[in-house]
Design goal:
heterodimer, A: 4-stranded parallel sheet, B: 134 residues, mainly alpha, globular
Chain lengths: 296, 134
């Protein structure tokens, strides 16, 4: 299976490990992603007022390019890209006059028919590959790894765009259980981490991340598993801690570890693997941490 | 006791502007406080979302000087839960837009340090600039 791929800016800057891990696990599942030959920033946040049409130009241009490149579907790894592109797509379908108005300002370069589809990688894994196929590919089950899946906002809201039930999601739990991990949950899994407040109100992010990490630790978690590159930044760099911070993994990295892939190929360095090893007393993860390039 | 409404002397001009921009009818709000109860940033808001709506409805002074709508990141938990179907993040966005157009940028861009620019993910910077500069 081959699919068009929209990376977005952060995947190429501060979340390269997520891309590396995604490409590695997809290779194992027989799926190749072809990066769009031309793409631009999606705009990151969906504009919420009607009188700000110019802010729809960035995501609509991505969708128009996708169609000009002869594609219908594009996969993205970033929750913010996914949410912004999917909502712009919804706008294009429900208010095509808005696309026409923007197109008129761009010499026809934004001619978009609304026929594109934006897929989150988690859509692909859950709905096309299927959790049964993922389970079948597991070589090193994540036994004794206790994870707290964190969803945040953009995977789940608003309804109609989100991938799962906004109040009681199960997607990451099901995925982690298919890898053999133990899952613990709590009420803060679906609450915002503070997102871009990292820029000018980082204290608020630290407060939210701290409360979530505390809930995860109290439930017995040895690691947090999440999807969004902005959540990852906030949890990894703004996490308050007296001792060792709680390790933060992209779900793609967890899948890669369970597939028995080399941690280095998943963007996990020795320091991170040691932290993960400390979080997991079992021999299984200790072995995993030292399986440099070993194929199971 | 007399409750003075229309304190801005603008007979609801801000309310009408917010409703036009957000597409929301604020008179729908019955002040249950569900938005404030679920908001992860309520403790950092100088006025809670349900009260902000009330201030708009009563044309109370000082709404555009509030911090609350800058603290809101649009996580949409309140929109998901509002029993009256009010999309509160759209109300917040409308207030940001009006404030940006009348009072200028909120984010002191020049004060972002080189180290922060180096380390912050692009999505954090772009989102912050989109929401807090005009």
């Amino acid at each position: 299976m081959q699919l068009a791929y929209y990376p977005g800016c952060t995947i190429k800057v501060s979340a390269r490990e997520h891309e590396r891990a995604a490409l590695a696990i997809l290779r194992e599942l027989g799926i190749a992603l072809r990066e769009m030959p031309e793409w631009n920033c999606c705009g990151v946040v969906h504009t919420l007022t009607g009188e700000n049409l110019i802010r729809q130009m960035a995501p609509l241009r991505v969708l128009a390019r996708l169609r000009q490149q002869g594609e219908r579907e594009a996969v993205t790894l970033c929750d913010m890209c996914f949410n912004t592109l999917a909502r712009a797509n919804h706008l294009a379908r429900t208010q095509p006059d808005q696309v026409s108005a923007l197109n008129a300002t761009s010499g026809g370069g934004l001619d978009y028919d609304g026929a594109g589809e934006v897929l989150h990688l988690l859509h692909l894994l859950r709905d096309r590959v299927g959790l049964a196929a993922i389970r079948k590919r597991v070589r090193r089950p994540l036994r004794d790894l206790v994870v707290y899946p964190y969803y945040g906002c953009k995977l789940l809201r608003p309804t109609g765009i989100g991938l799962d039930d906004p109040e009681m999601p199960t997607l990451l739990r099901d995925l982690m259980e298919s890898l053999g991990a133990t899952v613990v949950e709590g009420s803060l899994q679906t609450q915002c981490c503070g997102a871009y407040l990292a820029v000018d109100r980082a204290g608020l992010v630290t407060e939210r991340v701290g409360a979530t990490v505390e809930q995860a630790r109290d439930a017995g978690a040895g690691a947090i598993v999440l999807s969004c590159p902005l959540c990852h930044f906030n949890f990894a760099t703004l996490q308050p801690h007296a001792g060792a911070p709680l390790p933060v993994l992209y779900y793609t990295q967890a899948i890669g570890l369970a597939f028995g892939l080399d941690p280095a190929e998943l963007g996990l360095d020795d320091r991170q693997m040691e932290a993960l090893g400390r979080a997991v007393p079992s021999q299984a993860l200790h072995d995993l941490a030292h399986a440099r390039g070993g194929s199971a | 006791m007399t409750i003075a409404i229309g304190a801005n002397g603008q007979s609801g001009a801000l309310l009408r502007r917010v409703e036009a921009l957000s597409g929301q009818r604020l008179a729908q709000c019955y002040q249950c406080g569900t938005c404030a109860a679920g908001c992860p940033f309520a403790t950092a808001m100088d006025v809670l979302p349900d009260r902000l709506i009330r201030h708009l409805l009563f044309d109370m002074p000082g709404v555009l000087e509030r911090e609350a709508f800058w603290v809101c990141v649009g996580c949409e938990l309140c929109a998901q839960r509002c029993p009256r179907g009010i999309d509160v993040p759209r109300v917040m966005e409308a207030l940001r837009l009006i404030a940006l157009r009348t009072r200028g940028d909120q984010l002191p861009v020049a004060q972002i340090t080189a180290v922060a620019l180096e380390n912050l993910p692009p999505i954090a910077l772009v989102a912050s600039l989109r929401r807090q500069t005009g």
